[in-house]
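User: Predict the complex with zinc ion.
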Amino acid sequence: MKAVAVYPGKPNSAHLTEAPRPDLESVSNGRGVLVKVLRVGVDGTDREINEALYGAPPPGEDFLILGHENFGRVEAVGPNVAHLKPGDYVVATVRRPGRSLYDQIGLYDFTTDAVYYERGINLLHGYLAEYYVDDMEYIIPVPPSLKEVGVLLEPSTVMQKGWAQAMEIQHRLKVWRPQRAAVLGAGTIGLLATLILRLRGLR
Ligand SMILES: [Zn+2]
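Assistant: Here is the predicted structure with zinc ion placed in the model:
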């Protein structure tokens, strides 16, 4: 299959390449989901990876398939996948669990490990390819009515996570009633942050 990859550590190495089509059976216990990629967002992280400021290939390989903001359609599922079927629209999460306590309780975005695993960014191939396979735990169904904006799900979760943490921290004050928010950055997340905060009634 076609894929867009870089050689991490080598600036401006983004290139079109051929990579083996991933196999449903590469995920154990019949939990695999094969997804045809329909859209991939490219952002500042991808640019930094291409500038060799960031990113590492999977162990034993010299290239990294780019792409973490993704949207696709299920092609096939393993026998133990109950909540997804071929034809469903999906988005896959980016970070995979490491070893810390946070990783073990499903909060791997808060890992305290020094080494972390992120598809398309660090040590795992990304989604800028024709297909990917992953464990059903990491695949989120998207209703067909949201298929035009589904590729924005991953960046919007970054914003949502930040908001949830701010609420958790400020909750201690009992009387926190935010009216205004300052949004830094003009990229995808900045745009979504502005939109989501507006929806929450903040200026
Ligand atoms: Zn991103």
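The chain has a mean pLDDT of 93.
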